[in-house]
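This is your field. Have a critical look at both lines of this record:
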Amino acid sequence: MKIGKDLVAAAATPMVLGILAEGESYGYAILQRVSELSDGELEWSDGMLYPLLHRLERLGHIEATWSASPAGRPRKHYRLSGSGEAAFAEQRRQWSVVSTALQKVWADRDGRSSFALGGAPA
């Protein structure tokens, strides 16, 4: 399935903040985690991820440090800052509202969701 660019773009910030809420990470590992979380449905490119990471860093939501990697080439590692944790909490609240509204709009006449996230009734 091809997921539209608008939806991918809208979900990018909360996805990256959520991944970094799990712990410090670096670009390639973030790309792998996105793919893993979406069962391979989301395949982000470097060209999409790194501008987002730079923007989040400029906003003060993430902090970055360089460190050596096992392969020998330095990697830039990213982690949430205090304002990043607050931004992530706000993103979660907003996406919860959107998710609930979508579940309701997709519900069938019996009040059961025809597309419930996680298989739970709406």
